[in-house]
Write a structure and sequence with these properties.
By secondary structure, the protein is of the alpha+beta class. Helix content is 16%, strand content 34%.
Length: 166
């Protein structure tokens, strides 16, 4: 009983105390990480480079108008997607137009180290794929920021997807 009374006195004494000065929290965890240098700022990061996950790859190299881009997805057993075209950048968005698959345009997310293709793509993107393979949902991480390495990327049939004129 005596302990309960002491605890009530201690709790009651806290009610009249002003709250400590609260520090404002960052508007975004990502913004704080960028400011601290923990992650790169996608708005100021050049997307040029070679990106991959397992056997799936994306290459991005500078061109006269914006970027040349190539995409290769390998499911094995003759299931694959392969395409090339152009990309323009607006902040964290890479607008990709696969000219090798007419009508296949989409906005991929670029965060400075990764490129993520949306989970739903126009039907025309299926022209870049064999059988039931899909480009949708592809997510790759940067392996290199070298334009020459990216330009040398080839698909499963040996075609250069970012090298030379498109």
């Amino acid at each position: 009983m005596k302990r309960a009374f002491t605890a009530l006195l201690l709790l009651g004494g806290c009610q009249g105390q002003p709250a400590p000065n609260a520090q404002p929290t960052p508007s975004s965890l990502e913004a704080a990480a960028i400011e601290a240098g923990i992650i790169s700022d996608p708005a100021s990061t050049d997307p040029t480079g070679l990106y991959a996950r397992d056997r799936d790859k994306i290459c991005v190299v500078p061109s006269a108008t914006a970027f040349r881009v190539g995409v290769y997805v390998d499911y094995g057993n003759d299931y694959f997607c392969s395409g090339s075209g152009e990309a323009t950048r607006n902040g964290e968005t890479l607008h990709v137009d696969l000219t090798s698959a007419s009508g296949c345009s989409f906005d991929a997310k670029f965060d400075g180290d990764r490129i993520a293709v949306p989970g739903a793509l126009p039907d025309a993107c299926q022209k870049a794929c064999s059988r039931r393979a899909l480009l949708a949902g592809l997510a790759v991480e940067r392996l290199s920021d070298s334009a020459s390495e990216a330009a040398a990327m080839r698909d499963g049939r040996g075609r250069m997807l970012c090298g030379g004129a498109q």
